[in-house]
Structures are given as structure tokens and as C-alpha cells.
Amino acid sequence: MTITHRPIKLMYFAWVREKVGLAEEHVQPPVDVSTISDLVAWLRGRGPEYAAAFERGEVIRTAIDHTHARADARIGNAREIAFFPPVTGG
After folding, report:
1. SS3 per residue for 5-39
2. Is the pTM of this model over 0.85?
């Protein structure tokens, strides 16, 4: 039996949402998924839509429970993780 985290709400914005095909979902990643970069790697393996969405994972911004987070940030007991492309202004 694989131990997992409690369910985490993932939210996708802009072109990340378009490529994944969902605005949000609840997932239970394996327990060895402990950082944002681990989560992105796990998501890439969930299917071609996720692989396409996270192909340029280094440019995607992340927020854990409404606080911006780096790729090495620990997921811990996050309730919500959001993925969005960088915002440009003009």
C-alpha cells in the first residue's frame, strides 16, 4: 500500500489550465512528493496533457495556500497549490 498526502487542491491558470484541460482538481500525491519540484515531476507523469503543461516548468509560478513559493518549497500540509505562468504588464 502506498502512503499518500491528504488531498491537495491544485489550481491551474492561463495556458497551464488550457494544456491540462482543468481549472482545478484534488490529488493525493505519493508521500515521496515533498516539494513543488517533486510535485511537478509527478504531474508530468500523469499524462500527455500534464507533460505539455509542465514542459517549461521553470517558468511556471507557484503558490502554496496563497503564498508564492519556489520550486524547492516543501508541500507539507498544503491545502491548495496554484500554478500560473509569469505575469507581464504593459
Report:
1. CCCEEEEECHHHHHHHCCCEEEECCECCCCEHHHH
2. yes
